[in-house]
Fold:
Amino acid sequence: MKSFLVALFFGFTMFCNAQNKITGTITNSENKNLETVLVSIPELNKETTSDTNGNYSFLDLPKGNFKISFSLVGYDEKLVSVSINQKEINLNIQLESSSNHLEEVKISSNAFNKIQSQNVMKIEHKSIKELQQKGAATLMEGLSSIPGVAQVSTGTSIGKPVIRGLSGNRVLVYTQGVRLENQQFGEEHGLGLSDSGIESVEVIKGPASLLYGSDALGGVLYFNPEKFAKPNSYSADFSQKFFSNTQGSNTSFGLKSSSENWKFLIRGGYNNHGDYKMPSDSLVTNTRFEEADVKTAVGFSNSKFSSVLRYNLNNLNLGIPEQIGLQTRKRDPDYPRQGVVNHILSLHNNFYFKNSKFDADFGYISNSRKEFADSTIPVLDMNLNTLNYDLKYYLPKIGKLETIVGVQGMSQTNRNSGSELLIPDANTNDIGALATTNYEWNSNVIQAGFRYDTRKINTETHGVLGDEGYFESINKKFNSFNASLGYKTKLTDNLSFRLNVASGFRSPNLAELTSNGVHEGSNRYEIGNSNLKNEQNIQTDLNLEYGNSHFEFFANGFYNHINNYIFISPNGNIIDGNDVYDYVQANAKLYGGEFGIHFHPHPLDWLHITSSFETVTGQKKNGEYLPLIPANKWNNNIRTEFNINNWIKKGFAAVNIESIFKQNNNSTFETKSNGYTLVNLGLGGNVNINKANFDVSVNANNMLNKSYISHLSRLKTDGIPNIGRNIVLSVSFLL
Structure:
């Protein structure tokens, strides 16, 4: 291992000599040269744009087989496979005018680097800029606007992702290409990421255990980091947001520069909010929070090797709301509060051979979580350190058959320093092996694969036998074999069809295996079960998409069967006035889907009308409903796009009407929820006045100041409504 790391960093610091290059000209069907076409080679982290004559070029390329993407607004994206086996290749490209507006983006979370139309699995892709234009105060709030995604919220500061009714350790989060581990089992443990320095997000709905291992049972949130500057360029930007409801602000500053081989960027962000105001004008005490975030990266590439080193520091100071108390615009969180510090370090390496490629990715995540009851001395002090690795070898392509084999693993330690313990000190070790293959012919694609994983968990004894907080040491091993099979085809020129069947698994977490005490916030005494088995599921997904020049339609349906679903159930005993609950298992099922249309009538290309509906139902084998299942939602948007002379470009005006239905399918420990409708407005664009160029947007969320309580709000049990009207002003400058 030591010799490998020495060779790795020697390769990272070596200088290069120009080897191979690709040049070409991009035109449209009328042979007109196209400028500002985005040309990228995702596997090499290289990107450029065509000049005024439609010309583009890439220098110092390795030998091998790669995919080059050509994209421009108003044209169908083209993905071309190229075999680089000579010093210079001339590749001229003709783009066709777009026949529909279905999103054609490269999917980073798919190991085969496909664009959406070629991908077997339907993956939701959203740019962070698009989510920010909706006026979200936090990253999680923006994500919950994606069909099939919701959040379990504690005020405005803490949000946990829910994908098709599954949350907590059943949803895996990837950032900077590595899995995020931050004690996600806790009800009050949020996402822990800032939208500053994130380019886009991809949502995999359903088991993705084939590529990611344990905890990807319900789905994956895959965050793509900010891109480097284009070769031989430099840029700096500054953005500022203001929020009327919380009197909050969000500041971000970024700087990046690239040569032909070296790349560098740094970005800092600061987010600060006071208590949020309900429609009644009362403040919800201690929902205030502050967040500081720094992201930096350095990259190097030549014809044999490329490497990217990224680091993220995220520091959160969060108030924990308990009641409607003192009305103040104080900014610093009161007690009780949380202090959470995340360090994320990732190193991504690509080694290029003549007809194959080897990827070696490493990640280190340090999560420090402290909870303060009434003083500066933390009652809960948890330190989680995780080292993970992901090694993949891309075999030489055989005709149209692409195959990947890989090994992934994780080594994790949990240590406690506070007076209270939620989980014991523990060591967790994972290792998994996978193989997946992709075959494409005509308009058909088949993708299949299998994977085997093993997880070992060792905990230490703590406390006195018979007392609350006693943890008996355990030494457990969990194994699982999983497979997936997907097929995608075009039924007609405008109608595509996808069918996927995949299995997934989740090992029990430490809280489920070892709990022995009162869980604060839920007022119940919870007892873990060291005999719990893996949750094992199989899910079937069906996707239909139709698109022509003025109308698109999509339908996603799923059925998810889970063996050994873990939940808590009262055993009839009482300890110190608290009902006692055991962690037990039973089979369960979830089913539902998302459906939507996009209408943009010609010749009114500036008008876009979209409507989507999402539904999910979750039940245990005995017919009881599962907890934390979001209510059905119907989302309608009218968006206009415009330019005004030369001083407003890419302008937009939008009206969003979000209707949430009653949730009567509640679990034993929940109450039913009423339906409600929210109206949101947005206006913005790129402004150019006296050589000053900047983006500006204004959003009015919950414009009618509707009083409502989300079914997934943890403040629901106290009858505390969600946030009232919120006006958001955003300004962004290129410096």
